[in-house]
Amino acid sequence: MALDAYWASRASLIAEERSLRRDTAYIANLTESEKKAEEIIRKIRAREAKTVWSVEHEEIPALFPGMEFLTARKLIEETQLFKIFRKMPKGGLLHVHLDATVDTEVLFRIALKHSAIHVRVPGPLAADAAFRPLPEFWALPVSQFGIAADIASSDYVGGTWIPLREARDRCSLGAEVFDDWVIGSMRVNSTEAYKTHNSATKVWQKFFSTFVVSKVSLILFKPVYEEYVYEFLRSSIEDGIMYVEARIDFRFKTMIGDDGEDNVDHAQWVETFGQVTDRIMQELKEQGREDEFYRARIIYTAARFVSKEELEWYLEDCIALKQKFPHIIAGFDLIGDENMQHPLTYHAEPLLRFKERTKELGLDIPFIFHVGQTLGDGNCADQNLFDAILLGTKRIGHGFSMAKHPLLMKICRERGILLEVCPISNEILRLTSSMPMHPLPIFFNNGVPIALSSDDPAVFGNLILSYDYYQVLVSSEVSGLMTLAVTARDSIQFSTLEDSEKRELLQIWERRWKAFVEEICTLTP
Amino acid sequence: MALDAYWASRASLIAEERSLRRDTAYIANLTESEKKAEEIIRKIRAREAKTVWSVEHEEIPALFPGMEFLTARKLIEETQLFKIFRKMPKGGLLHVHLDATVDTEVLFRIALKHSAIHVRVPGPLAADAAFRPLPEFWALPVSQFGIAADIASSDYVGGTWIPLREARDRCSLGAEVFDDWVIGSMRVNSTEAYKTHNSATKVWQKFFSTFVVSKVSLILFKPVYEEYVYEFLRSSIEDGIMYVEARIDFRFKTMIGDDGEDNVDHAQWVETFGQVTDRIMQELKEQGREDEFYRARIIYTAARFVSKEELEWYLEDCIALKQKFPHIIAGFDLIGDENMQHPLTYHAEPLLRFKERTKELGLDIPFIFHVGQTLGDGNCADQNLFDAILLGTKRIGHGFSMAKHPLLMKICRERGILLEVCPISNEILRLTSSMPMHPLPIFFNNGVPIALSSDDPAVFGNLILSYDYYQVLVSSEVSGLMTLAVTARDSIQFSTLEDSEKRELLQIWERRWKAFVEEICTLTP
Q1: Model pLDDT for residues B120-132, shown as the tens digit of each residue
Q2: Does A340 fall in a domain?
Q3: In what residue span(s) does the Adenosine deaminase domain sit (chains A, B) (predicted)?
């Protein structure tokens, strides 16, 4: 074979493989500005790969692009690339758990404002951080308010509720220690992720415990919940997110109301969510910023661990909420550690019945299942992928182990089943050690539709989606700015919006994208 | 959909995906004993997943099956599963670098026997291990022998050659420190792999340095080389390996002969290798063990970093050796860090010419390229996969990043291009953090032929292939004993042997396999 013929075959083989990718068609029709912007981004990436990610660092033994997020975060924030991506219009945020969306420090500040919120521990708070239990919070009715006390004093009787603000002010270990203890209990830190809990099983234990603290005892208090939803949506908008499908965990049947009574039902949760959304849309409109936010909806999530009989209740509850709030309820999902809890096969019967029921009722409540969030090969969590597809899931939450399944990836490509990929979540939950080990390029090369999401940003510290965008972009030489553009577009295309709404939102995105691209074109790489 | 119909669709979807796997056809025709053995192995695996890999350990924060090899090795050795796999007939060892095959302690003992071997360092050996340089060895002619001295004394003049044995005996830091220093310089230890050098780029630096010590200065001395080849083949046979294609690095044009002169040419290297092989076959025959070893051949490897003009010399050298030793020279390869050195495109011209030349000469010297040994997505090392295939590679060494390439995996499946997968090597070189993150299940599920290999066992400590078998087996619930049987069979089918030889070797393997299976059947799981 002559050299010329060799180069020709090579180009054609590479092109044949790339033809499966969803960004290939988009790249074939770029505007001149897009071409220029792509080039500038690639140059900045190449420069920073050397100037930021290949130098010797005093404290970090090995730097590389896409390395462990919790170790790299400060360095990421200093890069030009990150600063650029903060401004990108990101389309929809399709995979996020409401109760892990707001910065834990902000949540803590919100909680401190409410005198109903109390804290307790089983015994005096230890001076040694290693021996401190998780804090337990609760919003009490006025009649049961506790009295101020030093939670670290040997006089403290384990189990006694102390008003949160007073507990903090009186804590003899100091307010700073108190804050670190509370905030640390709601986050996974780098020592936990990369040392003490460095396995998919172990880190999940810590991950789960953060919810026990924040969700169960702080967020399920309506005054906090309202502020929480507001903070979440406002900060998402600042990050370029234009549309949200938030997963809300409806496991608990009520939350505590303003009066301290545990009687606020699911309809009120959804109603409040809708009211907060409307308020934000109104505020933005008044500021002439209506292009920045389209809407927020809720994916109803129940717990995977419940019995199939109990699941029936949640499915009916979801139907009732959909009937009452058709524009807010977007779909149904099951959550919890797939590796430890019931597989979809266990719930197949009620889930199949739910499909029949919603069909009869003329309701569109697609399944949007969390599945394949595992390192297992052929374990239940991995096999869940088959069931999600057979049950007609509209999208797949995570689908991490999908990379092992060529046939399922083909089905996703052909039927248009999008994977909600959460890169930083996967890394901190130790499904991958770093982004270069992440299967995302496998999904891209197999033409699976992808949207990038942040999953549990309050727990992982990836509080803006730009972090995930950054980690994806610096870990590849194939993917580029246009790959991210396509994922952002797909986050709209594969949302649960009506077709006409998708078109409308896409038009808004295109306007903002054009402006973003023009801004990149003014940069010197 | 009724539940029954659901189960039927599910079974059919899973079966459709599994149909691509190479073990599926084999599993369809198992003997009763094989079925029983498979079941026993799966039971033992499930039991040990709990009793060994899910317990709390005093020193290791997180245990799990397939975890970091250097941390887990002692635990692996104690398992019943590992002890079973020590006895499995493993077929061919297709990917191993001769100069990293023999336990470094054994190499050191061999070196100590030869009075010609000297050692030196740039200055007195430091008491603090952190400040010790790599030892440099050389075999000197009698006329240049050095005198005994304390290499750690402040009187030692940097660069002075000391006879190795005397240097060890006189070392004022003690023989044990001396031994640790020498042996440690030829291995990657767990602190290096998992802490100080924990990235693909950093650990490669340490990896490379081990060769500078062992290969350049110890193994390239013919008396050592001869013993080294013998030790390698004998220990491989003890591990159930029946056939070997060893990569020999022919970068240096000569090695040092018995007389201390640096003039032993490549033909003598190959001839010695052949003689040692013959000797072992003779020994085995005398012991009635001829079933245990079929033959050993050499894959000629040149350095990737040479200029394409220099490469011509090596290609011609390879042709000359093939003409002289047609039964020993099995193929041609290029080695070195793909991420840093010339891509295949750089060498395309001489490589294409080589193909023409060998065709004209009627020689069968297939390319067996190391490619895709990278975490890169679209970098040169990843792109090398396209070139290897276009250049007609017979097999692929590593091909780690092949998981990203659906089209290339399809080509491998259809054209019968086997991937030589080296699980523990990949893990220690930080392409994967652990076996559950390794892309091997992706290769299996895409029907790519696979052989498992140890790569550089002396450096990584995976001195028997059973370690790699073990790590693969415990990281999956799909793969089982029969998956490993198929990889062992494929290591014969995809070897460079003639078809008649393959049939003969396969028959021998089947005899031994049958006995192995029967032995498993006697075990209580």
Answers
A1: 999 999 999 889 9
A2: yes
A3: 193-507
